[in-house]
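For the sake of transparency, this paper describes our internal protein records without simplification. An entry from our holdings is shown next, in its original layout:
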Amino acid sequence: MTVLCVRFQLPPESEAALPGLLGLLEEFTPVVEALPPDGALADLRGAERYFGRSAVELASVIRVRALALHGVDCVIGAGPGPMLARVALRDARPGVTCAVPEDAVAQFLADRPVAALPGVGTATSRTLCEYGLDTLGRVAAAPLSTLQRLIGARAGRELHEKAAGVDRGRVVPNGVSRSLATERPFALDELDPDRHRRALLSAAEELGARLRALDKVCGTLTLTVRYADRTATTRTRTLREPTAHSAALTRTAYAMYEALGLQRARVRALVLRAESLAPAEQASHQLTFDPVDEKVRRVEEAADRVRAKFGPGAVIPGALAA
């Protein structure tokens, strides 16, 4: 084992604790990749040699320290690579690290559903299941040409390798500072889709204003929906072009929300996170010659100037109507 996938069991209001928990992991290895809002990958290849302990043993130490120093429990999956560690995390539970046997990776994966692989979405899973390829073992045994006809050449090749246990991924060090998040909790569990959309609009406008204040643009947007039963659904979408434009962020947030197809879901909170941040000066903007879009952008610029002068709560009369 060389890679851990750690999910900290953070209460919804404690997402700000993640940077400190990442610092705990960095005491063991500098190769830590944040997986907001509550997880991380850690490559312990050097730590195993330095501490003279296996990754599973180090996982136990990490769990104890997280509880002792931060009062946060965690679940941990371990594997030879990041993809396998994420799969192992699905079977992990507090107090017990689930590890993929290095000499039996294919057997570990064989009986798992295809949706257990990171990156395999509902549509791909449905397509494969229609042809009887409902487990990773069957996908690995299927001819590569069959998979490529079903889901495409590149996707079919990657899926075939992953189902056979080939993990070409690597842990890429990053930090939570490369993302911005805002949360919209509801006083009572909310069923009304219109209220959900208004909360998303407010969150997207706040993210846009914060990005513009920092002279940043984001490349991806992540929506997390927290439900009354303490479960959550997370969806991530790459933007057509990196942006800090509130209207573009709102459209993407609405699209992710609509794609969930929620039916009378009791929503406790909505979290919107801007990720893959980059300097605004390095971003390009596709000209549309759309007078409405240009007007909205001018209103945004004016609103940003007012906020800078009078504070974040300031509102331009008539700006919302525009």
The chain has a mean pLDDT of 84.
